[in-house]
Amino acid sequence: MVQSFQPAPDLTPFIECYWSWQIDPRDTEMDSILPDAAPEFIVHLQAIPYRQTAPGEWQQQRRAFLYCAARKALQISVRDPMELFAIRFRPWGVRRFSRVSMAEMLDHAVSPGDALGTLGEQLAGQLLAARTARERAGIADSLLTEALGKNAGMEKRLKKLLDASNGGRCTSSEMARQLAVSDRSFSRLWKELVGIQPRYFIQLMRFHQALELIDAGIPLKQVAAECGFSDQAHMARQIKTISGLTPTALGRRLGEPVYRDLYTERPDAPWRPSSPHPPG
Questions:
Q1: pLDDT at residue number 279
Q2: Range of 26's domain?
Q3: CA 136 remoteness from chain centre
Q4: Which of 121, 151, 181 finishes a domain?
């Protein structure tokens, strides 16, 4: 079961939502978290699941951590009833609150203190102590709003990063031209704030756009054309590279409750053009 809460208006340029998730291992024992470049501050409130570190090897996750799946899917094993609360940042959002480059925080669990300093430690402690998801959303709103008054230098950097990608529908060069900077300067800024090169970010956004169309029953050839792939074979290669599955195999997973919980019910997901843009 998933509950989601919208952040305060001043936080929406940086935070997509707060959400809580309860999972019963009788419903799902294993889950694959697809890369989407949206960092999440996660606090496990009950049992702590396991993540796959190598084929056949599993390691228990931290109680609280920041994680951004960017280059590979994260395999999770749920063995006991689990409940978590998470702050889902927009791809550029963490850098408004952290002095650490996002490039240093991709695809591995980062402790609250290492990711967000004192703010991270406060969030972890207070979210664990709260009694309800709504109370946790209020705590996150309060601490993050207070933190907006700090790290003001990053505010100026973020204002340069307009929502020029249109959900991944523009090329890196087109985004650079809209910002009136060189391709190299734009790429350097984007990587600092988001952690990955803009070209790969666009690939991730097109990947998720394709999944939504496949889920809607659109023929694969049409999906490839609408999402900007050169042809169906190109799309299949990209989907296999990112998810490890063929379009047909991945399509079978799209109807599963876990996928719908994590991806379908996200009106402000970064691959959707309606997503609020960075401040500017």
A1: 44
A2: 2-151
A3: 20
A4: 151
